[in-house]
Design goal:
Cytochrome Bc1 Complex, Chain A, domain 1; 45% helix; 6-stranded mixed beta sheet
Amino acid sequence: MLQRSLTLLALGALVLCAQNVDRTKAPQTPPIPSYKLPPVFQTKLPNGLAVEIVEDARFPLVTARLNFMAGSKFDPADTPGLAEAVAHLLNEGTKTRNSRQLSEETDSLGGNIGASAGPDSLTVVGSALSENLTKMFDLLADVTLNANFPQNEVTLYLQNRVQSLKQAHSQSSFLAAEKMAQVMYGASPYAHIAPTPESLQKIDPKNLAQFRDTYLVPNNCTLILIGKLPARAQLLAALTKQFGVWQQKSLPSAPKIDTPAPKRHIVLVDRPGSVQADIHVGRLAPTRTAPDFFPLNVTNTVLGGGTNARMFQDIRERDGFAYDAHSEYSTNREAATVSAVTEVRNEVIEPALKEVLAEMDKLAAEKVQPEELSNVKNYMAGLYLLRLETQDGLATQLNSMKTLGLPDNYLETYTTRVRSVEPDQIQAVAKKYLATDQAAIVVVGDASKIGDALKKFGDVTIAKAQ
């Protein structure tokens, strides 16, 4: 009887509470906490290999990153795609293991071994059960130091890459991104986001090995380890055994990044028969280490950083011009871009482009209201914290910090710096980086259908789709 009475009282209390809830208002989001980075132990081996160690005993797993400043900007001028090819082929054969053996041994770790290259860095990735840590080190060291780029694997990679490049060039979104990079970055290495059919013909085992021997050296590398790890002395002994024999080398100077001055530049990439037009409107932007980064990062999220952002709500939901409308803030180590992106039907190209430009200009003309800004900050901070929940997420962020030259406190101060952005700062950076009178406009579509509409916005340069 007593238990039944307590149950009835509890139900009654819930009913009263429910009656007091104002369902016409969205619930308030509680303050998003700052991120507390676990202790990071930093050291360096005698050969110059930097090591960062983070203990995470929640799961019996280890995640590793070997970060090299060896991305696509280091490609020879006539061979874009070389760094990408090196990364892909590192685990396709070494002096002592063929591709199949590497795959089978990797599977036995309960993890993976792989690599990828971006604009600034090449990263070798490894993960394994903690009990297989030394085996993972052995495989990571082997593919990094001893990859021999077998001719049959190189030939297969190049054949597949030629086909994937053709497939990419059949997509208007890729054509727009490719041309936008060329327009905004000019003659600098960042202008190349993919290889060319001609550059792929120049890739062979010899220049792959030369790139590896030049840039994949210990004094150009940071090893990041996160997970359930053995005692520190035991761990460092294992690292020294596997990577200590690696010889450091002098490094060539990094390529110079010279970017053209911003100006209104309209390029129409002609894609005959296209029933839609891919629109990209952008400017050069500050890098992650610049004072304007956080204000512009928040501004970008207000403009087009999600389904509640202005571009999505106005261009898609209100006007029905597009299925997707968003903005992008892409940062490299030495240069960055911010752009508005959407894809619309040919018949609405003129009003849609007007709306894109208006959304960008509005941020410079009017201050963001407090409620909208608060929602954006909470969204950014919450999403950021979610990305750091897993070993892989934290390893990726630490790896990015090395690639982009960010300070050691970047992760811990991120949410605070996002929350500190004020409306006048947003207006200031919008005037500086979103002003459309100096924006590059790239449109991919059928020139015979949309060319006249684009000419209403200025002089148009027509380029052929590759």
